[in-house]
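new request in #modeling-help
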Amino acid sequence: MSLAVVKSDPLANRLASSDHVTAGWTAPARAEALARLTAMGLPGRRDEYWRYTRPDALNAAMPLPAMDFRSDEVPVFDAVDRLRIVFIDGVFSEADSDPLDVAGIRVERLADVQGADIHWAQDLYGTLEAKGQHPVARPFAALATATATDGVLIHVTGRALRPVSLIYRHNAATSDAVLHHVIRLDPGAALTLLENGPGAARFTTLMEVDVGEGAAFHHIRAQGRDRDRHAATHLFARVAAAALFKSFTLTVNGRLTRNEAVIDLLGDGGVAHIAGAALGDGAFMHDDTVFMTHDAVGCESRQVFKKVLRNGAVGVFQGKILVKQGAQKTDGYQISQSLLLDEDSQFLAKPELEIYADDVACSHGSTSGAIDETALYYLRSRGVPRKEAVDLLVLSFVAEALAEIADDDLREDIADRLRGWLARRA
Amino acid sequence: MLEINNLHVELEGDAKPILKGVSLSIGAGTVHAIMGPNGSGKSTMSYVLSGRDGYRVTEGTATLQGEDLLAMDPEQRAAAGLFLAFQYPVEIPGVGNMTFLRTALNAQRKTRGEPEVSAGEFLKLIRDKAKSLKIDAEMLKRPVNVGFSGGEKKRNEILQMAVLEPKMCILDETDSGLDVDAMKLVADGVNALRDQGRSFLVITHYQRLLDHIAPDVVHIMADGRIVKTGGPDLALEVENNGYADILAEVKG
Ligand SMILES: Nc1ncnc2c1ncn2[C@@H]1O[C@H](COP(=O)(O)OP(=O)(O)OP(=O)(O)O)[C@@H](O)[C@H]1O
Ligand SMILES: [Mg+2]
């Protein structure tokens, strides 16, 4: 594969660090993605959706080093009965993973099926990503399609009895990993997908999810806590009629996190919820960029994002609801809020609504505020010490996002992780 | 129990004097009532005693069982035994009522060097207390005061008081907004807690609550001062004649 760029080009340098797959059924999709990426280039300050977040570390030829986070806490999801699929610095580890045979699900490793001629994932690999490049370019998603070295293909044909859990360990200080997952839920199928761990010093991921008619997809993610890690993640989903898509992400720590989600509601009566809670202290830049499209009748969408920031941490939210012509009876909701624990921290929000149908109910709100002094006083007047009272108010602030996790045990797991973060603060 | 001496308070940043020399002495095991016109400084006094920000004490002292209240953080005052039932209880979305109360109880116990109450013990304790105040299990699960009616909020304040078992209870207009039955429940709740080691300061506009909670001493506050102190009859006098006579008499 030849690159239409010269070596001094930052994109060429960025691509030089990864091995390129040029054979097998993903090859055409990879070539097209590379062409897309070459045409759009790496993001810069002038790009409308990169004004708040500096992409330098993501653009750089080599990743910045990141130490892995150590704690004696019980790992998140530890008590959950699940199918564990482990990646170490972006490479699937068979030894650490469970056998990939589970009733109702077919799980394959992207790297293993390179040679297969016909594969259901062929219709999906890079397809949702390509479609999601308009109207906003997403260069690192194209990069993931073009250069992913590993990932899983999950085909859910029935109700998966156990969650599938993708565990991303990080060992090497300067690892640079690019993963691409493809997930298909057949009509009526159900899957809970868990993700946790930092993945690598620099972690670029793309997940394409096809939720069939009446299917239900639950996604709960706890991003890695390595302080200096950089991550660009992408979630592209299409949601068929009467299907349910739910995604929740908890982020604590990480120098840079850019989580992009592009969700298309394509069938009548579909539901898509995406939520996130981010807690940052110090060198923390966290960006949620969401594009929700209503392209069918009677669909419901929710975007619920909460960020707790202190010591100069920065939060970004760029969320859009696009209601296409004919998408009547749309119910769209979007809320993005930050709790600034001091005056050094910053929240930048760009909420957008674009509506081409007349019978819709869409609401959005964005707020930035400090701890409610009256509530703080009330708690303290009952004997709760200041620090504990602030922690309670932080938990109460993110509660609406956590409430988006349907499963009680998983929600409690995530809440534990949150409490751990709070307990580590002075 | 509670000794307030010549307390002067103004708003921070405003230098507007609100309390202009309040003195009050509440003995252990007694119930005092404070009445007084709107804006006379009753709530301000209770906020200052419990440690709310935004006020500056320019003169005077306040001690609880000999300890300097004004030097303590609000949480220390609570652990020392002070409790304020708020005139306007605060809503805290996302914090469950039970979590809140258990956190508060255990924090106080920890400060006092007492062992924490286990989840099981706490559940039993709160169920008993809630039952007598006719607060149902569903209300206990809800976020603190969110979606509670005015009367439910007031009953929730008394529930907190019953669970935390403070030594000095200040009730700021706990009766306003209560229906007749709820008022009886609240009064029963208060009476159940009355004992030798516990004192009450009941701020109210109406005799009705005092019919149920018989006070030992009644004070009238006006314009930032206690202008008159008497027995239970003083409250009846206010109920019948308003404040005009008393204020005229004080001025005169
Ligand atoms: N934060 C504040 N800012 C401005 N004025 C204040 C503030 N707090 C109290 N005041 C003023 O101080 C005075 C006393 O208020 P306070 O609430 O203590 O009265 P109160 O006796 O409790 O009245 P009520 O019977 O109506 O509850 C009032 O004039 C009030 O407007
Ligand atoms: Mg008042």
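bot summary: The first helix of chain B runs from residue 42 to 50.
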